[in-house]
């Protein structure tokens, strides 16, 4: 019995010691968040992320770091979230990732950070709220769609799509008319990700946006929503000046699967872009209307093997 008690005491002592060492490590990392060197600050944030909810004591200093836009090489930490930055990150971005890893306790201070005067901090806070996907973050992120900085508004649109926030549809539809192209594009994506029929009118309007990227994203979103009301507007987009937009419109029409798109898609089998022709053939197969047969038979003689293969597939689907 005495031996057993000694073993249990040794285990308890070991656990207490490990917990003490872990707490000390977190305190040291918190101190490093104030280091003069940006790489040291970034590395500390990255390591705190690995601690997850055990790093809860770091929430306040991590929030203070959100506005730190000092560029550092991503090699300082393999974790980074900016899709448009392959070689650099910032301590602020890594602080946001650490706050997400800590979990729901980060939500209230992140909501407060959406009101910080430094716009980089607001953008990073909005990203973190989207990544946390907590219902408490929806309203403040919707408000961020009206932020004075385009970078914050675009990040807010992404976050609302990530949170699948139905309550944001009206605000995102308004953002489709934002002065900044990146905001409009991200709003279109978010509306498609949320998938509400109420978004269709705004997205149909965005098919005429001056930006090719916005038109393309709006076409995708309408296909993702499966909006029958968008069929004829998307058929009209098959004549867009951009082959990428025409291709996306063809995909969307196939995704919606409405027979009203058949004639326009048959015409698109003669598009100057092989990618559009191939996508149109796929869409006709997805719709499955026999009216497309003659056009698809002609596409079997297309100069591009990819178009011929897709046309053969579509004919096979229709014949069944």
Condensed summary:
The protein is an all-alpha fold.
Structure description:
The chain is mainly α and 320 residues long. The chain has a single domain (2-227), classed as Leucine-rich Repeat Variant, CATH 1.25.10.10. Helices cover 66% and strands 1% of the residues. It is built from 18 helices and two strands. It has a two-stranded antiparallel sheet. Helix 3 runs antiparallel to helix 4, helix 11 runs antiparallel to helix 12 and helix 15 (262-268) packs antiparallel against helix 16. It is elongated, with a radius of gyration of 26 Å. Mean pLDDT is 92; it is low at 6-21.
User: What is the class in the CATH system?
Assistant: Mainly Alpha
Alpha carbon gap, first and last residue: 77 Å
- How does the helix and strand content classify structurally? mainly alpha
Overall strand count: 2
Strand content: under 5%
How large, in whole angstroms, is the Cα Rg?
26 Å
Show the helix and strand layout:
Layout: H1 2-32, H2 38-51, H3 59-65, E1 72-73, E2 88-89, H4 91-102, H5 107-113, H6 119-132, H7 138-144, H8 150-162, H9 169-175, H10 181-194, H11 200-206, H12 212-225, H13 231-237, H14 243-256, H15 262-268, H16 274-287, H17 293-299, H18 305-319
Helix pairs in contact: 1-2, 2-4, 3-4, 4-6, 5-6, 6-8, 7-8, 8-10, 9-10, 10-12, 11-12, 12-14, 13-14, 14-16, 15-16, 16-18, 17-18
């Amino acid at each position: 019995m005495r031996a057993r008690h000694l073993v249990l005491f040794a285990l308890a002592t070991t656990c207490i010691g490990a917990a003490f060492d872990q707490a000390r490590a977190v305190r040291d990392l918190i101190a490093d968040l104030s280091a003069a060197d940006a790489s040291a600050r970034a590395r500390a944030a990255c390591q705190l992320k690995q601690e997850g909810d055990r790093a809860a004591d770091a929430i306040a200093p991590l929030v203070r770091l959100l506005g730190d836009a000092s560029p550092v090489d991503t090699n300082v930490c393999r974790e980074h979230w900016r899709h448009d930055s392959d070689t650099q990150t910032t301590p602020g971005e890594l602080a946001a990732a650490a706050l997400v890893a800590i979990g729901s306790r980060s939500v209230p201070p992140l909501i407060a950070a959406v009101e910080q005067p430094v716009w980089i901090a607001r953008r990073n806070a909005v990203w973190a709220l989207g990544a946390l996907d907590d219902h408490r973050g929806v309203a403040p992120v919707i408000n961020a769609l009206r932020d004075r900085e385009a970078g914050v508004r675009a990040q807010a649109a992404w976050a609302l799509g990530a949170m699948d926030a139905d309550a944001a549809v009206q605000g995102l539809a308004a953002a489709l008319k934002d002065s900044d192209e990146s905001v409009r594009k991200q709003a279109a994506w978010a509306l498609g990700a949320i998938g509400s029929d109420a978004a269709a009118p705004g997205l149909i309007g965005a098919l005429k946006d001056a930006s090719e990227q916005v038109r393309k994203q709006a076409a995708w979103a309408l296909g993702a929503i499966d909006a029958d009301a968008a069929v004829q507007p998307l058929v009209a987009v098959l004549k867009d000046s951009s082959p990428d937009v025409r291709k996306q419109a063809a995909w969307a029409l196939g995704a919606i699967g409405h027979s009203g798109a058949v004639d326009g898609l048959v015409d698109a089998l003669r598009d100057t872009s092989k990618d559009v022709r191939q996508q149109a053939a796929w869409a006709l197969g997805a719709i499955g209307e026999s009216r497309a047969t003659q056009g698809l038979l002609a596409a079997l003689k297309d100069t591009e093997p990819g178009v011929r293969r897709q046309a053969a597939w579509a004919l096979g689907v229709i014949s069944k």
